[in-house]
Amino acid sequence: MVKDQSRKLVFKHISRYGSVTRSDISRGTGLSHGTVKTLMDEFLKAGLIEEKKDNSPAVGRKPRKVQLRADARRIGVLEIAPDRLIYSDLNLS
């Protein structure tokens, strides 16, 4: 339950702010860096987000930004209950 709430919080943050770093997400949501990293790994594996390359000429380690994949902005949700079956098609754009 808590993990589901954290997933929603992170997904909404990325949806709202676009291309963000993991640190941005941690600061913006109040979640720990470890929690954000775990969720980002899940989102990457599921194909919901992609890492964006930073082509700036700055020296040193560049922060890796993530953004929603363009084709991941629509999802289908299926709710199954003993007395009903509900399908929703959500546009997250």
CATH C-level class is Mainly Alpha
Shape: elongated
Point out poorly predicted stretches.
none
What is the level-2 CATH architecture name? Orthogonal Bundle
The protein's oligomeric status is single chain
Number of helices: 3
Give the H and E element order. Answer: HEHHEEEE
Q: What strand line-up does the widest sheet have?
A: 1-3-2
Strand content: 25-35%
What integer is the average pLDDT?
Answer: 85
Distance between the termini: 25 Å
The biggest beta sheet reads: 3 strands, antiparallel
- Quantity of strands, as a count: 5
CATH superfamily: Winged helix-like DNA-binding domain superfamily/Winged helix DNA-binding domain
What count of domains describes the coordinates?
1
Rounded radius of gyration (Å): 15 Å
Percentage of residues assigned to helices: 40-55%
Q: What structural class results from the helix and strand content?
A: alpha+beta
CATH fold topology: Arc Repressor Mutant, subunit A
